């Protein structure tokens, strides 16, 4: 090899080594600590990530962040989890059948109550007591169910664009198809996944509308894990079975007694503020309703400072 070429290679190697050292040093100086692990529960394992301050004791009860439909724990972690972890212990869970978690059972696991049972069991295994539960969208049903059925694990609620009440109509045709026993998994593998790859970016834009999604949202959150056939079917079943579940659960909301803040947006085209957030506010005594102006379905991404402030306010009341 020519001397000049050797010099170029050596220079590139040096740059690479320095970059690696920089990455390692940055990691060592990171203000938060992050650990991910599997927690054994009935029927399989849930994947759990814990975040917290690296240089001080966390403040207040832990914060349990629950992702919505068509996603995994990467969504709340990247939006608000890391910032909250500068001061608080943050627990994130891939819901059953999503991300890295097992489904833990069959179609019955589409129920928020069954998912709540599994998450409560995981918290017991982790020796975690009461938490402030932050639930987005589909997990509005899950978070409120935890407050109703597992009150020993809930010190407060923050609900972001929550789905909490039955609505007119059903779900998208492709979710109905994928949720079908037997052929649903074949549909998810042969139709939904290929079409989903082509339309994924447009779908993300629709969820964020009228606001814009952040750059590299899909990569940062690993949201394309949804396109795996088994996860796509699990997600479809979660959505298809949600309405009848909420018909049974909605009359119970008056029993919720923990500090509760409901955050919705006046331009949310995914979950109606009138049918869900405002109805829940009327039922939960002492709840706080926040209506964000000119915002869409993803306030934890687009109105991050406000959402974090509201979470910390509930955490302070939940001491």
From TrEMBL:
GO terms for molecular function: hydrolase activity. Pfam families: Abhydrolase_1. Keywords: Hydrolase. It comes from the Bacteria. Residues 61-303 form the AB hydrolase-1 domain. This is Alpha/beta hydrolase. It comes from Hansschlegelia quercus.
């Amino acid at each position: 090899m020519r001397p000049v070429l050797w010099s170029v290679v050596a220079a590139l190697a040096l740059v690479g080594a320095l970059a690696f050292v920089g990455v390692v040093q940055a990691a060592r100086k990171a203000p938060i600590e992050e650990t991910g692990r599997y927690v054994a529960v009935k029927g399989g394992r849930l994947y759990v990530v814990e975040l917290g301050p690296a240089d001080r004791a966390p403040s207040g009860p832990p914060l349990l962040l629950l992702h919505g439909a068509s996603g995994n724990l990467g969504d709340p972690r990247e939006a608000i989890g890391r910032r909250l972890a500068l001061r608080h212990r943050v627990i994130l869970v891939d819901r059953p059948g999503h991300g890295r978690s097992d489904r833990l059972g069959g179609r019955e696991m589409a129920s928020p109550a069954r998912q709540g049972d599994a998450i409560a069991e995981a918290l017991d295994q982790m020796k975690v007591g009461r938490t402030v539960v932050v639930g987005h969208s589909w997990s509005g049903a899950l978070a409120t169910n935890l407050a109703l059925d597992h009150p020993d694990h809930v010190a407060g609620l923050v609900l972001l664009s929550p789905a909490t009440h039955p609505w007119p109509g059903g779900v998208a045709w492709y979710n109905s198809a994928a949720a079908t026993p037997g052929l649903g998994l074949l549909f998810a593998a042969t139709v939904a996944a290929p079409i989903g790859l082509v339309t994924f970016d447009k779908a993300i834009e629709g969820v964020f509308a009228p606001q814009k999604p952040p750059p590299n949202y899909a990569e940062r959150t690993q949201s394309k894990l949804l396109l795996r056939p088994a996860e796509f079917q699990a997600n479809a079943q979660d959505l298809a079975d949600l309405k009848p579940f909420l018909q049974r659960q909605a009359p119970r909301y008056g029993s919720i007694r923990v500090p509760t803040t409901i955050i919705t947006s006046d331009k949310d085209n995914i979950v109606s503020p009138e049918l869900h957030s405002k109805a829940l506010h009327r039922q939960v005594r002492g709840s706080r309703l926040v209506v964000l102006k000119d915002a869409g379905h993803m306030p934890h991404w687009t109105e991050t400072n406000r959402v974090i402030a509201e979470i910390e306010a509930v955490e302070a009341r939940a001491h």
